[in-house]
C-alpha cells in the first residue's frame, strides 16, 4: 500500500499549514517576541544582524549630524575649540564613538564635553534604546537556544505498534525510551485516534479525534522513564478498536498520535515529543523483544533491539467477536 498523507509525521512534525489569514495575520505582530522565537534560525540571525547594523548606522549618523550642524567637523583639530564630542572628525570617527559608548569600552580618546546639551540628550536616548534592543534581541536568542525541542530528539518511539494479548486481554502496545541519563520529571503520555467518521446527522468529520486510554484511570499514563517502557491500551468495549480484527485492520484508515510530555530535569522546562502510527504500522500478533538485561551491578539496555518484534499466537478476531 502506498504511503498516504499523515497528520503527524514520525518525527513529530504536524502537517498543518495555515493559509488565507487575511486581516488576522496582524496578530503575529501583536506578539512579536513569540513570532521571532518561532522563526527558523537563519531568519533569526538575519534579523539580529540587520537590527544591530541599522541601529548602529542610524545612531552614528545622529552623532555625525550633531557635529556637522555645530561645525565641529571643521574645527576638530583646533585645541582652543570645545566641540560637542572630542576627536570626532568625520563619520567613521562618529561611528567609533558610538560603538565605544554603546559597548561601554571607553578608550578615553573620544568623549562628550559639558558644552553640548543636545549630545547629553542623545546619549540618554542611545542608552535607553540600546537597553531595549539588547533585551529584546538577546532575550529572543537566549529563549530560542534554551528551547527544549532538541531534548525531544533523544526520546525514542518504536517504529511500529503491536496488537497482542497481555494478561488475557487484547492490547495495542508501543514502546518509548529515553536515551539520556537525565530523567524526564512528571512524564505523562497521551494517545489520540484520528479517523474520519460521519455523524448520525450526516455531518462528515475528516479528522475526528478520539482519546485512547493508556492508563488514565489507573495512573499508568504517569511514566518513570528511566528505561524503555511498553505503553499499553486495553481493547475493551470502551475502546474505539472494539470491533477491530486482523481482517478489518487491512481495510481500516486511521492514525494514532502519541504525545509524550515532561519536564527536563536539567533545565526545568517542559518538553513534548510526538509521533504517530498509521494502520500500516500496526502489527497484529506481534510482541516487542526484551531490551533489558541484568549485568554486574546494573541493568543494561540494548537499544539495537528497541524496534524489534516477534510473532506470538494471537486470535485474529475482534474483542466484540
From TrEMBL:
<dbReference type="GO" id="GO:0034765">
    <property type="term" value="P:regulation of monoatomic ion transmembrane transport"/>
</dbReference>
<dbReference type="GO" id="GO:0034702">
    <property type="term" value="C:monoatomic ion channel complex"/>
</dbReference>
<feature type="domain" description="Inward rectifier potassium channel C-terminal">
    <location>
        <begin position="155"/>
        <end position="320"/>
    </location>
</feature>
<dbReference type="InterPro" id="IPR003274">
    <property type="entry name" value="K_chnl_inward-rec_Kir3.1"/>
</dbReference>
<dbReference type="InterPro" id="IPR014756">
    <property type="entry name" value="Ig_E-set"/>
</dbReference>
<comment type="similarity">
    <text>Belongs to the inward rectifier-type potassium channel (TC 1.A.2.1) family. KCNJ3 subfamily.</text>
</comment>
<dbReference type="Pfam" id="PF01007">
    <property type="entry name" value="IRK"/>
</dbReference>
<dbReference type="InterPro" id="IPR016449">
    <property type="entry name" value="K_chnl_inward-rec_Kir"/>
</dbReference>
<protein>
    <recommendedName>
        <fullName>G protein-activated inward rectifier potassium channel 1</fullName>
    </recommendedName>
</protein>
<dbReference type="InterPro" id="IPR013518">
    <property type="entry name" value="K_chnl_inward-rec_Kir_cyto"/>
</dbReference>
<dbReference type="GO" id="GO:1990573">
    <property type="term" value="P:potassium ion import across plasma membrane"/>
</dbReference>
<feature type="domain" description="Potassium channel inwardly rectifying transmembrane">
    <location>
        <begin position="8"/>
        <end position="148"/>
    </location>
</feature>
<keyword id="KW-0406">Ion transport</keyword>
<keyword id="KW-0813">Transport</keyword>
<dbReference type="Pfam" id="PF17655">
    <property type="entry name" value="IRK_C"/>
</dbReference>
<dbReference type="InterPro" id="IPR040445">
    <property type="entry name" value="Kir_TM"/>
</dbReference>
<keyword id="KW-0812">Transmembrane</keyword>
<dbReference type="GO" id="GO:0005886">
    <property type="term" value="C:plasma membrane"/>
</dbReference>
<feature type="site" description="Role in the control of polyamine-mediated channel gating and in the blocking by intracellular magnesium">
    <location>
        <position position="134"/>
    </location>
</feature>
<keyword id="KW-0630">Potassium</keyword>
<keyword id="KW-1133">Transmembrane helix</keyword>
<keyword id="KW-0851">Voltage-gated channel</keyword>
<keyword id="KW-0472">Membrane</keyword>
<dbReference type="InterPro" id="IPR041647">
    <property type="entry name" value="IRK_C"/>
</dbReference>
<dbReference type="GO" id="GO:0015467">
    <property type="term" value="F:G-protein activated inward rectifier potassium channel activity"/>
</dbReference>
<feature type="transmembrane region" description="Helical">
    <location>
        <begin position="120"/>
        <end position="143"/>
    </location>
</feature>
<keyword id="KW-0407">Ion channel</keyword>
<feature type="transmembrane region" description="Helical">
    <location>
        <begin position="45"/>
        <end position="66"/>
    </location>
</feature>
<keyword id="KW-0633">Potassium transport</keyword>
Amino acid at each position: 500500500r502506498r504511503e498516504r498523507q499523515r497528520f503527524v509525521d514520525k518525527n513529530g512534525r504536524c502537517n498543518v499549514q495555515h493559509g488565507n489569514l487575511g486581516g488576522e495575520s496582524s496578530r503575529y505582530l501583536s506578539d512579536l517576541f513569540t513570532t521571532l522565537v518561532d522563526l527558523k534560525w537563519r531568519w533569526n540571525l538575519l534579523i539580529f544582524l540587520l537590527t544591530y547594523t541599522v541601529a548602529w548606522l542610524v545612531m552614528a549618523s545622529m552623532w555625525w549630524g550633531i557635529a556637522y550642524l555645530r561645525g565641529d567637523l571643521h574645527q576638530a583639530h583646533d585645541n582652543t575649540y570645545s566641540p560637542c564630542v572630542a576627536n570626532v572628525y568625520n563619520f567613521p570617527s562618529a561611528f567609533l564613538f558610538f560603538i565605544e559608548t554603546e559597548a561601554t569600552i571607553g578608550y578615553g580618546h573620544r568623549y562628550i564635553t559639558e558644552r553640548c546639551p543636545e549630545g547629553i540628550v542623545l546619549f540618554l536616548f542611545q542608552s535607553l534604546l540600546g537597553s531595549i534592543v539588547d533585551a529584546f534581541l538577546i532575550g529572543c536568542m537566549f529563549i530560542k537556544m534554551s528551547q527544549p525541542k532538541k531534548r525531544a530528539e533523544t526520546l525514542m518511539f518504536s517504529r511500529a505498534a503491536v496488537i497482542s494479548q497481555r494478561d488475557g486481554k487484547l492490547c495495542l502496545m508501543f514502546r518509548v525510551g529515553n536515551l539520556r541519563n537525565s530523567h524526564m520529571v512528571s512524564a505523562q503520555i497521551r494517545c489520540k485516534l484520528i479517523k474520519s467518521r460521519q455523524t448520525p446527522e450526516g455531518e462528515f468529520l475528516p479528522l475526528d479525534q478520539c482519546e485512547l486510554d493508556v492508563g488514565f484511570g489507573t495512573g499508568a499514563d504517569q511514566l518513570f522513564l528511566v528505561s524503555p517502557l511498553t505503553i499499553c491500551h486495553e481493547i475493551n468495549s470502551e475502546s474505539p478498536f472494539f470491533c477491530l480484527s486482523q481482517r478489518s485492520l487491512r481495510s481500516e484508515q486511521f492514525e494514532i498520535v502519541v504525545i509524550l510530555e515532561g519536564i527536563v530535569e536539567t533545565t526545568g522546562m517542559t518538553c513534548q515529543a510526538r509521533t504517530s502510527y498509521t494502520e500500516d504500522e500496526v502489527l497484529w500478533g506481534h510482541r516487542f523483544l526484551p531490551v533489558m538485561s541484568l549485568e554486574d551491578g546494573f541493568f543494561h539496555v540494548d537499544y539495537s533491539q528497541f524496534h524489534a518484534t516477534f510473532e506470538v499466537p494471537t486470535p485474529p478476531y475482534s474483542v466484540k467477536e
